[in-house]
Design goal:
Largest sheet: 10 strands, mixed
Helix content: 25-40%
Shape: globular
Number of strands: 20
Strand content: 15-25%
Structural class: alpha+beta
Distance between the termini: 30 Å
Radius of gyration: 23 Å
Number of helices: 16
Length: 501
């Protein structure tokens, strides 16, 4: 989505201001406009297009996170049992996203679902006897849940050769391996989806979209409203805008903006920026032999976001394979940010959290240093743990998006590094911000409904309730333990989104 530079200037006052043009802001703007078309809403995006940072297709793995394959969502407890509660929660959240996207299709707001979502089996793959036993226990536990019925398990090389021929090729038949497979998995181009929503907002709503406009500061006013300093990055023009409600969906820049608001809830938060790289191949001979997303376990001392996976990607109708991620480090909070982002984020309210998180995560620091020091040949060597005969000339390095992991206050350790997605809202419910990374974009609709539940509870329960149920038919009900509703919702979204599982 692009917008002609008409020289328009924002109005001095809006009901709602959304900071950032990624999946979160586009989702929240669409929800709010559906609930009340008369709301005066503005979106400010510092770059010249929606979805150029973390939401861009190559800046994330494109996994429709349903907890089908991500082993870090199903930890083994000390007593040997598998905890699938987080997996069930994430699976339910992605089902909410699919319902909302189906609503947008049915209303004609967006078209051609294959531009942004395609069926792609999700697989977990492990090596060695101990991990194979864990995977079987995980499979036994997960298939008791309504949300994971249909999952397949195998430790048979012939079956695995059917599922992942590229991975099995050149392997010793005595090697112990095991895998699970869920055909309900998806590959999602969140950038394409976001631009479709942005185009709808720009052309068919009264939501005002301002590209190349950066929110530099957010200050509370005595009357409870918010005053923002906005910079037009093309004309170097600055102005102030007032809003009743502000949502900060600015990726890595959400943290400094949240801190500028001086709300009590932002105290003690810090940010730890992590960049990444993928190995990518467009060699169709290889692509045709790997039609799935295959996740394995993170190495010792590696963060959950670094779980190695070999994925089919479908971007702009073209198939490719992606392997990674390889972690990197930059002091930037955004890919197109400043190297001063990290040092400028340190203040008296979060320095204890930052130091505590660093001190208690020294193995992570060592891991990042090792990752940054790797050359392409060493990365190819890691790929050969998946594809035994991988050739360096078939693969290119691609820089992924910049992530800012949350650091939170912790009474015991000073600070704690978090790897999830978190919504921060002030007590009055007039400002909200999204912090963190995975599962991120996949759960955008759930996260934005969470914002609305905290900030507009009376309206959601009152005048917005009917529209909410039209958009999210399962809202307020758990799919887990309700096979009839789960099947009904999955059939509905399968048809609307033209999925092929």
């Amino acid at each position: 989505m692009s917008q002609p530079l008409t020289g328009r200037t924002p109005k001095p006052k809006y009901d709602v201001v959304l900071v950032g043009g990624g999946i979160m802001s586009a989702t929240l703007a669409t929800l709010l406009h559906e609930f009340d078309p008369n709301l005066e809403i503005a979106i400010f995006e510092r770059l010249g297009r929606f979805a150029k940072e973390s939401t861009a297709a190559w800046n994330n793995a494109g996994t429709g996170h349903s907890a089908f394959c991500e082993l870090n969502y199903t930890p083994e407890k000390p007593d040997g049992t598998i905890d699938i509660s987080k997996a069930e929660s994430i699976a339910e959240q992605f089902e909410i996203s699919k319902q909302f996207w189906s609503y947008l299709i049915s209303k004609g707001y967006i078209q051609n679902p294959k531009d942004f979502i395609n069926s792609c089996p999700h697989m977990s793959l492990v090596f060695g006897e101990k991990d194979a036993e864990y995977l079987k226990k995980r499979y036994d536990k997960m298939t008791l849940s309504t949300l994971f019925q249909g999952m397949q398990f195998s430790n048979d090389h012939d079956k695995l050769k059917e599922w992942i021929p590229l991975v099995i090729r050149k392997r010793n038949a005595t090697e112990i391996m095991a895998a699970t497979k869920m055909d309900l998995g998806t590959d999602v181009n969140f950038g394409s989806l976001t631009r479709k929503m942005g185009r709808h907002l720009l052309e068919d709503s009264n939501v005002e979209v301002f590209l190349y406009h950066e929110v530099k500061d957010i200050d509370p006013r005595a009357d409870g409203k918010w005053q923002m300093k906005i910079k037009d990055r093309i004309h170097s023009h600055k102005q102030e805008v007032v809003a009743d409600f502000v949502f900060i969906g600015a990726g890595g820049y959400a943290l400094p903006l949240l801190e500028s608001s001086d709300i009590k809830e932002s105290e003690g938060y810090g940010g730890f920026p992590v960049s990444g790289q993928w190995l990518v191949t467009h060699n169709q001979d290889l692509v045709e032999q790997h039609q799935a997303k295959v996740y394995t376990q993170a190495t010792v001392d590696a963060p959950p976001m670094s779980v190695p996976h070999l994925d089919l990607r479908i971007i702009d109708g073209k198939k490719a394979l992606l392997f990674g991620p390889f972690a990197g480090f930059s002091t930037k909070f955004l890919k197109e940010g400043s190297y001063l982002d990290l040092p400028e984020s340190v203040n008296t309210k979060n320095i204890r959290s930052l130091f505590g998180a660093w001190w208690h995560n020294l193995p992570l620091t060592k891991y990042l240093v090792q990752q940054v020091a790797m050359n392409k040949a060493q990365r190819i060597q890691h790929l050969r743990e998946f594809i035994k005969d991988a050739k360096e000339e078939d693969w290119e390095l691609k820089v992924a998006g910049q992530r800012v992991q949350i650091i939170k206050k912790d009474e015991k350790d000073g600070g704690k590094l978090e790897f999830g997605t978190e919504v921060v809202v002030n007590k009055a419910g007039t400002i909200a911000s999204l912090l963190g990374a995975s599962p991120g974009a996949s759960t955008a609709v759930y996260a934005m409904l969470n914002v609305l539940e905290k900030c507009f509870p009376e309206k959601l329960e009152g005048e917005w309730k009917d529209k909410l149920m039209e958009m999210i038919p399962s809202y307020g009900q758990k799919l887990s333990g309700n096979p009839e509703l789960t099947l009904k919702m999955r059939d509905y979204t399968k048809e609307k989104l033209e999925l092929e599982y």
